[in-house]
């Protein structure tokens, strides 16, 4: 069944006008904000497919910038995101781009920068406000951020995943999905772990203590 | 979730409990949430709906299609044919859609493009019948369940099955909710679902410039009228020859046969009319000036 709960049908609370082009766009920006570890100082946003065609009318641009500032889709500050970005000295630029035929027609690539770091994310808005994060810094991803998700990057050596899983188990939280994506040349791997409960800060601190760990982020929903 | 309308109706009759209690038990069983958690969440959705209704007429809303700005305001005038209450409900539905287009916070029901219907109908019915907030909450559960049943058997997406799956379904949800609020029997709730969906069967999704504005805002108005109409008919004893579940199945079959141009692409129907195309050019201009 597509809809198990009545709240799958009524209850997505969001800033209008479009669940796919406004709420979904904002969520891609919001997840990017979390994975980057906060607001970027500079963001370049590439709009692909249907986003490139109709972003102005659906205010997808305003919604994405709101997400990059850390606003969720139901945040009343979203309409003022351009102004807020200026006040917080976040620069952004939109460009139309053809990401290629492998991407969903509603896709966005966001390249975020501060003076110290840079990160790129590709996400698709797949309908009804649902999204899928497809790539992080060129590594293949595939999570929808509908359940609490830990995303981390670590050295690509044996045994790291087992360490991660054992740390999660100490906190008595069930793993509902776990995936790994590797870059053999750079010798790094990224994994994303979907959990059944909210992610406590202590769990993130514990994961950071794993020696091979480079970066850990928690998407709590 | 219940298999279909016949399943829901037969369980209510068998258990001899009010429909909203059967729904609470089922929701609790499938999601693991307590009754209180479910009711709190439903109340939160209703609160957001009421807020969007109240704020919808106070904001200075700028829309990309200038011709539709403040069209809802015209419905505040004295009634001519349809009575003060229904005229005001239409005004509410249209103003929620305008508010949504102005980036106001709304509760999608079942989608953002059909989000004006349910709040306008349910809160107007509450006022007309002088019902309590608890009655509204119970009616919400019935309407939401009807939406989930239709979604599972057919679709809730204009890109899949046309506007019948958005405004049509919103109308069925709202109509069944107020029929329950008015004391309708389980069979009468089923009749409302059949009648609302039949009336909008085949409705295409043809948004001008691909936006949730034209004809969406005004189609929310027919969704409101259709909900009150079907509830009035069913509560008066009118029955649909075709049972609700067969109407839902027909709706999905019709939806599948709709050409892609008429499923939210903005390429057919009203979107392809000369005026529709002119508006699209005005908003999006030529391909060359898209970078900024």
UniProtKB/TrEMBL annotation, chain A:
Q: Needs which cofactor?
A: [4Fe-4S] cluster
Matching Gene3D superfamilies: 3.30.70.260, D-3-phosphoglycerate dehydrogenase, domain 3
Presence of the UniProt keyword Secreted in the record: no
Q: Outline the extent of the ACT domain.
A: 149-221
Protein's name according to its UniProt entry? ACT domain-containing protein
Question: Which keywords appear in this protein's UniProt record, sorted alphabetically?
Answer: 4Fe-4S, Gluconeogenesis, Iron, Iron-sulfur, Lyase, Metal-binding
Keyword 4Fe-4S tagged = yes
Q: Which PANTHER family match?
A: L-SERINE DEHYDRATASE (PTHR30182), L-SERINE DEHYDRATASE, BETA CHAIN-RELATED (PTHR30182:SF12)
CDD domains, alphabetically?
ACT_3PGDH-like
From TrEMBL, chain B:
Segments forming domain Serine dehydratase-like alpha subunit: 15-271
Q: Which UniProt keywords apply?
A: 4Fe-4S, Gluconeogenesis, Iron, Iron-sulfur, Lyase, Metal-binding
Domain of life the protein comes from: Archaea
- What pathway or pathways are given for this protein in its record? Carbohydrate biosynthesis; gluconeogenesis
Please give the cofactor(s) recorded in the UniProt entry for this protein: [4Fe-4S] cluster
Q: Does the keyword Lyase apply?
A: yes
> What name appears for this protein in its UniProt entry?
Serine dehydratase-like alpha subunit domain-containing protein
Task: Kindly give the InterPro entries that the UniProt entry links to this protein.
Answer: Fe-S_L-Ser, MmgE/PrpD_sf, Ser_deHydtase-like_asu, Ser_deHydtase_asu
Q: Which organism is it from?
A: Candidatus Lokiarchaeum ossiferum
